[in-house]
Amino acid sequence: MYWKVGFAGEHTPRKILLVSSTSKSAEEIEMSLRSVFIHTLLCTPRGRKVVLCEKMTEQRKFRELVVSILLEKLEVDSVEFVPALVPPVFACCRDNDLSGLMIDVGYSETCVLPVYSSHPLIHAMSVADVGTRKVHECLAT
């Protein structure tokens, strides 16, 4: 539903874009990615290293399409995948020995990731098919 874009080392995304991955064609996704590089990040995609913080439950077909566009059409150097819940764990826990739950309420699902001694326990992650889409539907009625 949303793309958060920016550079590594920045504390917040440069921009959060509303994107519906299910209704877009390959050409529209390519144009969107090209626009992100040129208009938002103010750089060319060629030769860049890209890190995708993705939902682990993202559709494989969409992920492969994005990687194909990035590598073949936009000619980025590399694409690295990181589970979306891991970067916040490292940001919160890097200097501390913390334990707790990371809860990510997304548009279509909610993920809960236990953290023990600053280490995310990916194998124990739980996903529910409830997200802010339900809030949007309730507000619409």
UniProtKB/TrEMBL annotation:
* Superkingdom assignment: Eukaryota
Write down the SUPFAM superfamilies for this protein, in alphabetical order: Actin-like ATPase domain (SSF53067)
User: What is the recorded name of this protein?
Assistant: Actin-related protein 8
